[in-house]
Each structure stands twice: as structure tokens, then as C-alpha cells.
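User: Please predict the structure of the protein below. I'd like the answer in C-alpha cell form so I can feed it into my own downstream comparison script.

Assistant: Understood. Taking the following sequence of 215 residues as input:
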Amino acid sequence: MKQDRLWYAAYGSNLLHARFSLYLTGGSYAEGHRRHIGARDSQKPKSEAPLINGPWRLCFGRSSPRWGGGVAFLDPENDQGASVRCWNITHQQFMDVAAQENGLLPGELEINVDEVMADGDVEIGNSWYSRIVYLGDYQGLPLLTFTSSHPPEPTSPGEPYLSVILNGFLEAEPTQLDQHVDRLLRADGVAPSWTREALLGLANRSTRDQRSHES
């Protein structure tokens, strides 16, 4: 492949730029979170980072002590109209992000993008996000992500995790709050623990907190 860039399809906490950028530059997102090493190439992703809908299913499963509940997984075999945020990064950066998500160091994981595109997916181990998946092309570049080899049993996500996801959605499309809430309500594991009213309240609190932090 001549082109050295791709789109990384983010659907969990990496929807939010401040969270995703730590996988490139290094650092810790919040107290109690592990510190990320950062990619070998720490350049920022291209500025365009759109949300796109596709024939995938978003689900929440397992349980993360850092996030207080279930975390997000993408099921590419089931069409539920899930959304991903597209980050334009290099092949090497994608490998280093995937490595860190799977408990490896940058440089310890090699992914043949051409092979993933030809086969549709490739397994890199048995950790939570060890399935590398090709989701098609977007604007002339491959769209790749990583997810679980098998969709987990639904687990309700905690408030900190959903807050980051909602902020990521709103960062990409600030005027589409109702649609973002609908996206989450369709995901396995969200209802009945989370209602529309609770998600709207969480989004409003997150927006106020963000504005207070910026000021």
C-alpha cells in the first residue's frame, strides 16, 4: 500500500480528542488511570475527525474499575447503525495505539494493514481489544478499529465513561445532542440502567463542567 495513513474508528472513550491524544503524546487522563507511554510518532491527527454511521453494533460489556462499569465494544457483524469518530493517523500510530490498548508497548505490535484489508480482520492475542477489523474505506483511506473477538455479555457503563463518550460526540457534532443520546440508548448495556432523561442530564452537566474548566 502506497498510502501511509488510515482512519482509526473510535467508538468508546477515544471519541474525545483529549482522551485519544494521550495514546499519541503520553500521559494519564484522570487520577487512578494508567499512564500511557504515547506513540513513537507523537504528531497530532489531522484536524478533520467526523462521525460516521455504519452497519455496526455498539455494546458495553466487561467491567473496568477505572471507568466504574462496562466499556465499549464494536460488533461489526450486526447492523444497529452505530457511530464511530474517524481519526486520521499513520499506520505506525495505529499500531502503537492498538498496542497500548492491549497491554503492549509502542513498537511491540506489527499489523499488516494490507492483510487486514484482504481478510477483513486479524487476531493479535486474547486481550479485550485483540481483534483488528477493517470496516471499509472512507474518503479513499482504510477505516480500521479494534474490538473484542467475541461480543461480551452486556454490562452497564458508569457515569465517567458515558460522560467522556457524550463529550466526544458533542465535540464532533455540537448541535446533535438528541441523536447522540439515541445512539447510546441503542447500545446493549445502556438501558434500563440509563434512561433518556439521565443521559440528557449527564450531557448537560458535562457541558457545564467543560465550560467551567475552560474558563
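That's the full C-alpha cell string. Residues 60 and 71 are 5 Å apart (CA to CA).
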